[in-house]
Design a protein that fits this description.
Two copies of one chain form a homodimer. Chain A has about 220 residues and is an alpha+beta fold. In chain A, about 40% of the residues lie in helices and about 15% in strands. A five-stranded mixed β-sheet of chain A has the order 5-4-3-6-7, with helices on one face. In chain A, strands 1-2 form a two-stranded antiparallel sheet. In chain A, a hairpin with a 2-residue loop joins strand 4 and strand 5. Chains A and B meet through helix 2, helix 3, helix 6 and helix 7 of A and helix 2, helix 3, helix 6 and helix 7 of B. Chain A binds a DNA duplex (20 and 20 nucleotides) through helix 4 and helix 5.
Chain lengths: ~220, ~220
DNA sequence: CCGCATCCCCAAAGATACTG
DNA sequence: CAGTATCTTTGGGGATGCGG
């Protein structure tokens, strides 16, 4: 590596910023670029390698991903970590400051889901969508207790505000939804069609109430052509 | 107007979307483009005319603003309204769905302010920054009661979760901060330097506790070159 | 393979001028 | 006042290459 290379590497600065002394504007300076918040969303559930991250973000070019990772690292949102010798790979993980973006992602998701419409076909959803949804949307506001969620083939649970894969031991309430669509309509429109709850139904409704988006009329769901 | 014009107007579609069945991704499809959330931020405090909006967003070209307004209107976030005859002008205002973005802006601001640093000089701040800050950050979580805020020359108050300009009648608690910087450090770092509270201090601390960002270590404040 | 860097193309951002 | 037209610049998106 020669001097030119070093200079070239170092001069990759020159960011485009809002010149605005406002917390929201500054937040957008750090995570407002395209794909940035989706990178954070993925890392909310644990560290990931570059390739796995790329696989979870189809449509994001590898160069863009590399750029975002650099920017987010420079902004103190995430950090690169080298795994101990046996595994010669490295992972990206959120810093505590990056983890603090969870409420932002949560509010965005609560807002966006109302105009998103129910999942159209199974292929749209990742296998771990239920755990992720529970972790970002339900767990942060869950009352004390143990909840089990069965949606279609998937099962996950919440105990004391933490999410676990699979069924729970001695759950206080067990929700069973026919499919992701039923779960969607329960969450967004409070429709109990295709949904049953066993156990402490009041406790479950308390959770649902705490987690649900405020009911304002959203525009018609965007239908993919 | 001829056919070409109409066609030209109609074909201005072709948006760039994340193809992702996730609420957050869909939210970013609607308000994730550059300047979009700042437009929403401005409109949170009431309808604005095009020119006033442009004036509040220096750095945003008029064409970009026009594009964002079109996109946001198409997305059901805001609406264009013609004022009654005497005033021949029109204003942009948030729809109820657009108003529901307030928690998103709020969380963004809470997150961003921790790495923003205190305001450096007075010119950075708009004259109504205090009212806006109270409205988005404090008011939504304010306990019942009346609060008065005196920060430097500015005075505003909160009663029953609503913000009013100027002092309050019979406030339960009155905060007085020497300058915006003192207010910043109180909010972000819980430093009472340059700040005094008269009246029900416990009630005020309750408000502060409810409104403050969780205390995680943020990266060093970004210093403008 | 994994983790990027480089190249090319085009869509969007940014700046400025101009018009009903 | 409320935008549109036009031009330049920047950054995203896709493909490919390449060192470790």
């Amino acid at each position: 590596m020669n001097l030119e290379t070093i200079t070239k590497t170092a001069e990759t600065a020159s960011k485009r910023r809002y010149e605005d002394a406002c917390g929201a504007a500054h937040a957008l300076d750090l995570v407002g670029e395209r794909w940035a918040l989706l990178v954070v969303r993925e890392l909310l559930h644990g560290p990931l390698r570059y390739t796995d991250l790329a696989a979870k973000l189809p449509g994001c070019g590898t160069n863009i991903l590399a750029n975002r990772l650099r920017d987010l690292e420079a902004g103190g949102v995430l950090a690169k970590r080298r795994l101990p010798p046996p595994a010669a790979s490295q992972v990206y993980e959120l810093t505590p400051y990056g983890q603090a973006l969870k409420p932002v992602i949560r509010e965005l998701a609560l807002w966006g889901i109302r105009s998103l419409g129910p999942p159209n076909f199974e292929g749209q959803l990742e296998p771990d969508w239920l755990e992720h949804a529970l972790a970002t949307v339900f767990a942060p506001v869950a009352p004390a207790g143990t909840f089990e969620f069965k949606v279609g083939e998937l099962v996950a649970s919440i105990r004391d505000g933490e999410v676990y894969p699979g069924p729970a031991e001695e759950p206080d309430a067990v929700l069973e939804a026919r499919d992701p669509s039923s779960f969607y309509f329960l969450f967004v429109e409070r429709s109990w069609d295709g949904v049953t709850v066993e156990g402490d139904r009041d406790l479950f409704e308390q959770l649902l109430e705490a987690a649900s988006p405020s009911a304002v009329d959203a525009p018609a769901a965007t239908v993919a052509a």
